[in-house]
Design brief:
With 362 residues, the protein is an alpha/beta fold. It has a single domain, classed as Rossmann fold (3-Layer(aba) Sandwich). The protein has eleven helices and 16 strands. It has helices at residues 6-12, 53-63, 103-115, 146-156, 166-169, 189-192, 224-227, 246-260, 289-292, 304-314, 323-330, and strands spanning 17-18, 43-50, 76-81, 120-125, 160-165, 173-177, 184-188, 196-200, 202-206, 210-212, 229-231, 235-237, 264-275, 284-288, 296-301, 341-345. The strands form three sheets. Strands 2, 3, 4, 5, 8, 9, 10, 13, 14, 15 and 16 form an eleven-stranded mixed sheet that branches. The chain has a three-stranded antiparallel sheet with strand order 1-6-7. A two-stranded antiparallel ribbon has the order 11-12. Helix 2 (53-63) packs across helix 3, helix 3 runs parallel beside helix 4 and helix 8 crosses helix 11. The longest helix is centred in the last third of the chain and has 15 residues, at 246-260. The radius of gyration is 19 Å and the shape is globular. The termini are far apart.
Length: 362
Amino acid sequence: MQKINRREFLKASGSTAVALKTPWLFTSFKKESVKKPSKETNAQVAAIRGDNLDSMTRDAIDALGGIQTVVNKGETVFIKPNFVSFPWAQYSNCFRIGECTKPEIIIAVTEECLKAGAAEVIIGEGSHLPTFEWQYAITLDGSTNLVKEAERFSSLYDGKVTLACLETDSPGWVEVPSNTSLNKIAISSLVANADKVISIPVAKTHSWAQLTLALKNFIGITPLSRYAQLIDNTWWNRGTFDHSSPQAIGQIYLDIVKNIKPDLSIIDFSIGIEGDGPTTNLGGTTLNMKERLGSWAIIASTDIMAADATAARIMSHDTNKVKHLAMGFDMDLGEIREESIEILGEKLDNLSVTWKSARLKG
């Protein structure tokens, strides 16, 4: 069966780009059936260890068959990093303390997409302020940043690179069905209209969601002006979303993932957060995998559930106790069973480390 693209899917479901305050109607979706137990390999996850994030990222993509198996010539690709504290990057290094996805990984993925012939690569994030300064997305060695690389790539390749603060740069918002009291969730049209979507989070524990990985990363594509509240007159927090339990907040981002159907997930296991994350000011602690494992790691998969489940195992979390993983599996979003996931490259046993869990606040 031919796979329809994201634009066709949203069009078929009745979704349309709308202004933020415009009412919207949508058709209902039938509940997905739960997969039966299986020992067959249903997903692959590439796992690479090393100390060069650029080459490790490209090696992980190559292990899955190369970016050309995901991105086609002429397509628009949306890349979603986790830049939760990036608006304040000029005051504290959010990359070195493990709160944000490393620019090296984003740069490598962007170039691979352009090499495959992508017409446009959009690197977009919502974060906690309406705008932020992309030049502070500096690589760990300080040699370059996303602004410089976007300009360089746009001159080297036929495709262009766009850096988008979603709150201000989204042309519109598309509402997708949600199995919550909200009934629908608005997401950036830049994501909804992209041909391919790639999630690139950094591995972190989370005081409300247990873990924040490739799935939860998509909370950041929703509008602050609709779902957020101003905190201490300095930053916006998406408090409209139910954070009362991991299941409650999980349903939000799982509904988003169900509708946008991400094509590739790459998880940053260089410097992350353990304990009461997702940031250090909430009580989380920086975890450098070089100190805990002896090297950094990158994992990648075209199955977002398999990526998150494998990441959870690396982080010494029981996948049976991570609520959103069981929920996503029941929604048929992908594979989480260890025996049905083939690890390409480094063995899982050689990646797992002790990773302190978050104390849930919900």
